[in-house]
Amino acid sequence: MIAFDAMMQEMSVTKAAEKLRIGQSAMSHNLSTLRMLLADELFVRVGQKMQPTAKARALAGPVRAALSQAQNALHATDSFDPATASRVFRLGVTGEMEMILLPVLLSHVQKNAPGLKLLSRQVTAETVDAMIAGGEVDLAIGCKSQLQSGAFSEILFQSEVACCFNPDLVGMTGPLSRKQYLGSRHAVLSQTENVAGCVGVALQAVGIDLDVVMAAPDFMPLLAAARNTPVIATVPCRIASQYAPLFGLSCCPMPIDIDFPPVTMNWAVWSDKDVGLVWLREQIRTVIRLIDPAHEMEAAE
């Protein structure tokens, strides 16, 4: 499995052998054994490069996950002292969590565990499974309605959205009515090729078409657009309460009830007992409780 994983990363017998600090002949022997055991070529030469077969691509994630699990087991300890620990935690976060969780979490961690570091990776609902299974992140935090087997999931809070707009440009003040909201043009979050975004798709499910004129993968462009254009940016409440005032925008609750997937914390089964990650998960729960949920918002001029 180690030889296979090295080949998947390097796509070269020579480079894989160097990575494993073994001779090229030994690496070739490992590859021959793999081909015989799995009844597949696994890696074929196309021009000057090696390419993985379909079977090799299918095995790559599970093999990487198994090796990560074995590595965690070998390095696991029964004690963890945050005051003296030195470790890098890899967090997969969505755009919302990147903006509202990470700054507060870093401050909290630095006060209690100055030797710890946070490495942030952006994830989406489509990429989170593979990143957890592949050991790319220790924890993933964001919207995910259903996680694949091999991972744990815990709800942190229910998603709620708010409307952010420039009252001078849209000619309205909050709170907005359903008619005002649906009669306006909109800027929404979208991490796919669908311009309707998650808000528009949720409304389409109940038979409502939103006039979306801009979709972006992050929230800052939406708020900037609302500052300069007569559009309504529909963003999570916590984003609205913290960042909309920086753009001089008014905020109010969305006048239509929609059920969005909750924000969850997800981690691999094999890291469930990792004492360092057990500690980190508790710190995240604490920080989430400290962040203003912004259930009630007043319009900000």
Structure commentary:
Helices cover 42% and strands 22% of the residues. It has helices at 2-10, 13-20, 24-38, 54-75, 95-100, 102-112, 128-133, 167-170, 178-182, 197-204, 219-228, 237-243, 275-290, and strands at 43-46, 49-52, 87-93, 116-122, 139-143, 151-157, 161-165, 185-189, 211-216, 232-236, 250-253, 263-268. It is α/β, with parallel strands linked by helices. It has a five-stranded mixed β-sheet. The protein contains 13 helices and twelve strands.
Structural key phrases:
301 residues; alpha/beta; five-stranded mixed sheet; globular
Question: What order do the helices and strands follow?
Answer: HHHEEHEHHEHEEEHHEHEHEHEEH
Please mark out the parts with pLDDT under 50 across 5 or more consecutive residues, or reply none.
Answer: 293-301
Helical residue percent band: 40-55%
Largest pleated sheet: 5 strands, mixed
| Multimerization status | single chain
- How many E strands? 12
> Radius of gyration, rounded?
24 Å
Distance between the termini: 60 Å
Structural class: alpha/beta
Shape: globular
Mean pLDDT score, rounded?
85
The helix tally amounts to 13
State the strand order across the main sheet: 4-3-5-12-6
Portion of residues in beta strands equals: 15-25%
Which helices and strands appear, and what pairs or packs with what?
Layout: H1 2-10, H2 13-20, H3 24-38, E1 43-46, E2 49-52, H4 54-75, E3 87-93, H5 95-100, H6 102-112, E4 116-122, H7 128-133, E5 139-143, E6 151-157, E7 161-165, H8 167-170, H9 178-182, E8 185-189, H10 197-204, E9 211-216, H11 219-228, E10 232-236, H12 237-243, E11 250-253, E12 263-268, H13 275-290
Parallel strand pairs: 3-4, 3-5, 8-9, 8-10
Antiparallel strand pairs: 1-2, 5-12, 6-12, 7-10, 7-11
Helix pairs in contact: 1-2, 1-4, 2-3
